[in-house]
Amino acid sequence: MDEANKPVQAAEATDDGGAKQLREGMIMLVCSILLAIAVVVPAALLMPATNKEHAPDPLLFIRLVEAEGLDPRAPEARSPVFRLAVDVHGVPERTRGPCAGGGDDAMLRVSYHGVILAWGGVPEFCVDGERMHGPNATAASVVATAEGSVLREELRNMIHAETQALRSAEFDVQGELPGLGHLRCKTYLLSRPRNCLNAGFIRHSRFVLLVIQLFFLTHVRNNTCT
Fold first, then answer.
1. Tell me: the pLDDT tens digits for 96-121?
2. Taking the complete model, does pTM exceed 0.85, yes or no?
3. CB–CB of 185/193 below 8 Å?
């Protein structure tokens, strides 16, 4: 009898194993669908439309207008001076804000290969689409300097050599701006700057999107896919 029942038991075990794999596959499929919904649906609901009322956020640049005290060939070493322009690109006509700068805490520092060369305060400014509408507009001007000090000769030689070899020299501009948070920018001598990395132009809806996604992902993981 035992020998006769073995094929039946083996078949039942195979059926149970196949049913278990099927259930696990269905659970994984449901999890994948729910995770996709958690990401796609909030994004579709909160993503700004491509019309004038929901235009893309403007980009922020720090443009190096003029620099002094960097040339090693000058007969007399002078304190470094960087005249910077805070530019915004692609400001929609209906944009209002954000506002940033102003106060003692609004400061930008110019550095070269990790060495701080100069610093300067940032006046208060607001992004205004009516006044700054167009491909490029200057929102504020900053004069960064280090009065009473001069750059070491080796630094001035490095900047000069980079300019001669690459037709440009790269500087880092960083600082805390009330209204925008921490700003990190690249600006260039004799070349166009790159857009800055900052959190000030991120819309509130994108923060809400992240919160909704985290909620859905946590809920799905804890209640369905465990």
1. 778 888 888 899 999 999 999 999 99
2. no
3. yes
